[in-house]
Amino acid sequence: MAPQKNKKDFMSEFRQDLVSGDWILLAPKRGERFGFKERAKVKLAKNKCPFENPAKFGNAPAVLVYQNKKKDDWFLQVIPNKYPAVGRGNCEPTHRKDLHKMHAGTGFHEIVIYRDHNRYLADFIADDIKNIAAAFQDRYKSLAEDKCIEYISIFHNHGKEAGSTVPHPHSQILAMPIIPPDVSHSINGSRRYFNEYGKCVHCQMLAQELKEGERVIYENNGMVVIAPFASRTNFEIRIFPKKHSAYFEKAGEQELAHLADALKFSLSKINKKLKDPAFNFFIHTAPAVKSRDYSHYHWHVEILPKFGIFGGFELGTGMDIITMAPEKAAEILRK
Description:
Layout: E1 13-16, E2 23-26, E3 64-68, E4 73-80, E5 95-97, E6 100-102, E7 108-114, H1 126-143, E8 151-158, E9 170-176, H2 181-197, H3 201-212, E10 216-219, E11 223-226, E12 237-241, H4 253-273, E13 279-284, E14 300-305, H5 312-317, E15 320-322, H6 326-334
Parallel strand pairs: 2-15
Antiparallel strand pairs: 1-2, 3-4, 4-7, 5-6, 7-9, 8-9, 8-13, 10-11, 11-12, 12-14, 13-14
């Protein structure tokens, strides 16, 4: 088949992620029916909200509290999840039963609750977001001391479609004894590239993105915000530190300030330009295993807005379809 001469006229295009090796399908013609729809907003009265006064609703005592000195009240608190996906148990190694490999569901599942009932992350000022990132670091460092823990997932679900069951703004931290598959893909891809070229794949990618500019949404002195070349969802955003580092928990105060600024910009743009859709964001960082070398990796934040559901093609192939070209998405978001 002859190559496409005019890129504006192409029907579709398969794109491969440089790090994971995964393919996505960009199908712009399907985007002609694309429209922004506000997320389904679930209302919950303050007096019935389990996060308005966590102790009152039978939650375990907070493991971390940040005070709001201006209002003489708490700003955020971290509590053990009342309905955890993992829990305390014996630190046992992975074992087999016949053909199958298993591991006990040991670990920690915590909720990071923000004080204001109706104030979402896009409404926070950058200094507040910096304090949230510092709280993430505090809990990460504490949980990483447990000898059973290999990976600590820090994530935020915004909206019912993104998996948020309580509308009161909150994030979650889940520490587990295994390295999850999506993280493994990213780490293994980073390692392969480093072994072959002796360079960080993400640093190389960022250098090219900054040179070309068409998928760069925002940058400050410490962070770059891009729409990934092989985005998995329409308007996917990734935030990378400019300085190479494998470990989010080692980011200094200035780097957290740059992250907060970039995250504030990104969430505000999603809120205003895309009509406040549901979204997930999470931090991809090197595993907490001290005995292995992950210096080749480059930590970052990924934000994935929710505009649809997986169909048979996506579920049957493991390949995502997007209808908005990342180049166009970046143009819309950076205006």
